[in-house]
Amino acid sequence: MKQKIKLILIAFIMSCGLVITPEIHSFDMDTYHRIQSNFLQFLFHLFFELMYSINLSRLVMTALFIFLFLWLKFLSKSNIKLNWVQYLLSIILAIFAVSGLAFFTPNLQNGSWDVLFKGSVQLTKTAIMFVSWFWLYNYLQVSLMYMLTLFKFPKKEQVGRSHSRVPKFFKEHIFITAFFIYTLLLVPIVLMDFPGTVSYDTLVQLIQFNGDVPLRNDHPIFSTAMFGNAVKLATKMGNPSLGVFFHALYHMVGSAICVSYTAWVLNKLTKKIAPSYIYAGLMAFIPILNNLITVPVKDTMFSHAFTTAIATICLYLYERDTYFAKKSYLMTLLALTFAILLRKNTVYALIPVLIILIPFVLIKLLKKKDNHLVLTAIIILPLFISAGIEKGLVSYYNVENAVLQQEKFSIPFQQTARYVKKYKDEIPKEEKEIIDKVIDYDNLPKLYLPTRSDPVKESFRDNVTKKDIKAYLGVWAKQFKKHPDIYFEATMHQIFPLFTMTNHNTYYASLESTSKITPWTNEHFDIYNLKQPEANVGLSLVKMSFYKLFDNLPVLGLLNNYSMYIILIMMLLAIALYHKMTKVLWAMLPTLLLLGTLIVGPLMMAYHRYYIPFVLMAPIYLALVYIELNKKKQTAETQNEIEEENTVIDETVEDGLDLPFEA
Fold first, then answer.
1. How many angstroms separate the CA atoms of 458 and 626, rounded?
2. Of 1, 118, 507, 530, which one's alpha carbon is 20 to 30 angstroms from that of 262?
3. Coil, helix or strand for 449?
4. Interatomic CA distance for residues 244 and 533, integer angstroms
């Protein structure tokens, strides 16, 4: 009875705390002042604030409460206990959830942590929100553990068993079947969006390729050359727009190969067919993935290639004989080379791994133990191959290969801009002058966008010296000592969309919508004659509006939220850390480093193309943790069976019975 009352109370608090926002509301001050007791005034204010903060109808709130109670009651029977790493993760995610809500009050541009701590009523409301989100993440982790440990580790399916409902071809040809499923779902989208979508970045790449502005390395030259040559070929054929379609076909086929190969790896890891085909179907179905197939941005093929490389490395870690027998090392080489050519983030994710891996391999080699020398070589080789290809392309296309200094300072520039916006009157003249030598000090409050560092970075002075940078970093460190909370707040405001479930993927586009953003873009769409047939305009616009609706649908909307996959990876990481799953941690390391490069990057909100690697990779890590947990479970069960058998033997011996030698 006590347990049921406890669950009812938790479900009731969560059903309120998960839907309220930090926004401060006005209330009846005359009635408030008529109350003599300070405590009763506090209660009056708190109840009114909570009432105005709950915007859902009583029917929806009741349904939410019932669902939460039934969910918690079901989980309470599992007797699953979380470890301290999982509790710590829930605290961190709850902080992100509450902070994210605060940053939207009154709006995303002017939101601040301050709203969470304005008086005792706001502090109480913040505590209710925090506890509710903390409980939610705890129960989500319990649910994850329940799903991962519910069934015994599946035995390998025997091909050709007479009672199986799965056709033999589907069992024997995972790659081909997954390729068919994936392309079957994508072809209608590619045709619907014909010829494809040209975003701002890809338009800039085309302009650079055609020589209208200098060709720089702001965008990978490999990507620029791929798209530019596709449009060049189509122009010779009399229709430049066909070049966008050619690139969409390249994306579709390339991503199909990567997804299908990853699906094949999942089959080899789990010994099951269903995960492979579910993976292929899901990766083609989710709008944040299939929407980008028709957009010639570098991130799409980079994400798929990077994921395939990680999948093959997982195969090496768990099924090394299969890895070499099926020559999967060739796919590792190819996928990593493509990933590096398409985004430098791959290098930043690989170099730290190699710094850790190489000494480890050398020590193992000296001790004449099993080592990963071959894998290390396979990871290093693409670095040299891609460097050679890029060098050849840079020389051939005469690319300006200068590195933009400001790209390294996204986080400190954002922190300085927020500091100036909030404490401008406190900054001494000499510090203002030092900052102004690097970025435009006077315009920082106007340029500052909390979730996007590009406007501040673009004010970077052309004549900045190393001495100026050093002086700026000195001021940056001094200001951090004065108001460290502003620095943390600025960083949280920029990265919170990565770790909250409440954000939306607002960036969907079609050729029609992107061609009417600014006069400058309109002009170049006309110059290059990039047009969409009238029959496709309506289809692509309806598709775009459906995608935005999809984001708000129950269950489906969560599947389409990239943050859900990042949070899932974090939850799997917590399990792997606590249970010391060494192979899983090695497999996760490049992905975590990739996430780190995005945290220090320029943009977090809405541009889901940066985050699709985590959508693609989360199912792989889910499979690995499932394998590890069930291996431990199998080992424990086997040990118990041996102990029980030994107990029976001992008891039998004590009874004086004769036993056969085998027993």
1. 46
2. 507
3. strand
4. 13
